[in-house]
């Protein structure tokens, strides 16, 4: 496997408080990003996502740790590496009275690149902004403004692109369109790191997922591996007659009673189950029939990435920061 395009080691950031204390925004973060992947960083508000991005992009000075991008240490050789990094910030920070064309062209010039009208046109057309090229940014909708931020970040043709909440405040239709555009960027060779509150976004697009809470990385893994090792199956079986307790003959299954004994709830599956949760539910239904327990309905739900995320973050809530 080739060397990572971005390597973060032991990264910490402490913001000093007024009385000498401090807030630890990042806590000994280790993270490697592979070339050509889409990596989703998930975490609740205040988890450290934006601080981590800011540290890589030169907006935040780390307290300790190292960041290496494209083989260069960003602390000592930042200029060449950061010229290959693009950032789409969470906030709409741009001159609202500037036209779309001038704003995007200016961003290209900031990195010392020669004007390239053909390239700017290509970017604007790919983001459905070409018809708005002469409009002032203040005249655009929220979704269009966010597309302008993406266009500005792409103007200097970065190899590594950070998207901090790229679809925040964007309606569902525009959000799906932007997902397609982000996928197209990866297809053209860009490596993409995105933070998002929309876990559906990560589940749909990401190759790997990292979960961060209180400045600590809780886990990083391929999306499929997370679903396999941490996923589960929940089945609710509505009973024809209520039960007072789970029968001893069904003790091998992870069952609880619900709705005053009128339903049986199964939760299991995941990596430890040889055949998976759905196979266990099939065995359970056969066991119910064998025991003469009739049921009138069954609702099966396999956990999503959002379920796993909520469970993982909630399980750490009582841990010290």
UniProtKB/TrEMBL annotation:
* InterPro entries listed in its UniProt record: AAA+_ATPase (IPR003593), ABC_transporter-like_ATP-bd (IPR003439), ABC_transporter-like_CS (IPR017871), ABC_transporter_ATP-binding (IPR050763), P-loop_NTPase (IPR027417)
User: Which branch of life, at top level?
Assistant: Bacteria
In its keyword annotation, does this UniProt entry include DNA-binding? no
Q: Which GO terms describe its molecular function?
A: ATP binding; ATP hydrolysis activity
| Ranges of residues in domain ABC transporter | 6-239
Keywords, ordered alphabetically: ATP-binding, Nucleotide-binding, Transport
Q: Does the keyword Signal apply?
A: no
Q: By what name is this protein known?
A: Multidrug ABC transporter ATP-binding protein
List the lineage, top down. Bacteria, Pseudomonadati, Pseudomonadota, Alphaproteobacteria, Sphingomonadales
């Amino acid at each position: 496997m080739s060397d990572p395009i971005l390597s973060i080691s032991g990264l910490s950031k402490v913001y000093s408080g007024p009385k000498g204390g401090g807030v630890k925004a990042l806590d000994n973060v280790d993270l490697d990003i592979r070339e050509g992947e889409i990596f989703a960083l998930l975490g609740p508000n205040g988890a450290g996502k934006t601080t981590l991005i800011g540290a890589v992009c030169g907006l935040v000075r780390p307290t300790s740790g190292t960041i290496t991008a494209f083989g260069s240490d960003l602390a000592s050789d930042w200029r060449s590496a950061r010229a290959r990094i693009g950032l789409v910030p969470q906030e709409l920070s741009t001159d609202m009275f500037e036209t779309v064309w001038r704003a995007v062209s200016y961003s290209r010039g900031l990195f010392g690149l020669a004007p390239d009208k053909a390239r700017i046109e290509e970017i604007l057309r790919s983001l459905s902004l070409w018809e708005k090229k002469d409009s002032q940014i203040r005249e655009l909708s929220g979704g269009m403004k966010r597309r302008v931020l993406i266009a500005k970040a792409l103007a200097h043709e970065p190899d590594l692109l950070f998207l901090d909440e790229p679809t925040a405040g964007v309606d569902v239709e525009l959000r799906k369109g932007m997902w397609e555009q982000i996928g197209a960027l990866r297809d053209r060779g860009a490596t993409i790191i995105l933070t998002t509150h929309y876990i559906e976004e990560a589940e749909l697009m990401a190759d790997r997922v990292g979960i961060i809470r209180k400045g600590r990385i809780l886990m990083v893994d391929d999306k499929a591996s997370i679903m396999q090792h941490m996923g589960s199956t929940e089945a609710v079986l509505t009973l024809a007659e209520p039960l007072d307790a789970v029968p001893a003959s069904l003790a091998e299954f992870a069952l609880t009673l619900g709705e005053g004994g009128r339903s049986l709830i199964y939760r299991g599956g995941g990596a430890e189950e040889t055949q998976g949760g759905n196979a266990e539910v099939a065995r359970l239904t056969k066991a119910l029939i064998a025991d003469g327990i009739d049921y009138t309905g069954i609702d099966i739900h396999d956990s999503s990435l959002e379920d796993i995320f909520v469970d993982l973050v909630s399980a750490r809530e009582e841990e010290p920061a």
